[in-house]
Protein: Lipoprotein
Organism: Idiomarina aquatica
Amino acid sequence: MQKRAALACIASSIVMTASVAAQQTPLQRCATIEDSLERLVCYDQLAQKQADKTSVSGKERQAKGNNHGQQVAEQARKKGQQKRSENGKSSEQRFGLEHKNAKDMDEIEKLIVNVASRRQDPYGNWIITLDNGQVWKQTESVGYFSWKEEDTYYIERGALNSFFFGREGANRRFRVTRVE
């Protein structure tokens, strides 16, 4: 009697294991295989079945791949043209506008400038036009700033995309931002 009970128990466990295996997805079945070579063969067979099931024919797949390649090539061409146009500008012309294009930062730390004209706005802040066409505006109030025509002026980089206008040999400078 005990033998029959044991056989019945073994038979029911085999049937349950088979039903559990039937409920598993093929991917899960491959994952349960312990031998690495057999597991790899199982995954390869699944991949082959999946490739056979796809509804896209070889010609359609190739056309789609070529189209994607053409799109990538077009994007790369446009990017290259944009880079060439940006590289055409000198670093002096880009000085003060680098924060708008992060890869241009840290090229020049200090720029010696020639002041073409200067004027004050209604608030007393200086608007300075340089001989290279750049226009800079004072953004902080510093009180008196002396101007001497024969002196050398500079714009230097500060922290966090800030710039300072000053005169060589003088201790006073003020924060500026580029307008044009």
Summary: The chain is about 45% helix and 20% strand. Strands lie at 110-113, 115-120, 126-130, 135-138, 153-157, 163-167, 173-178.
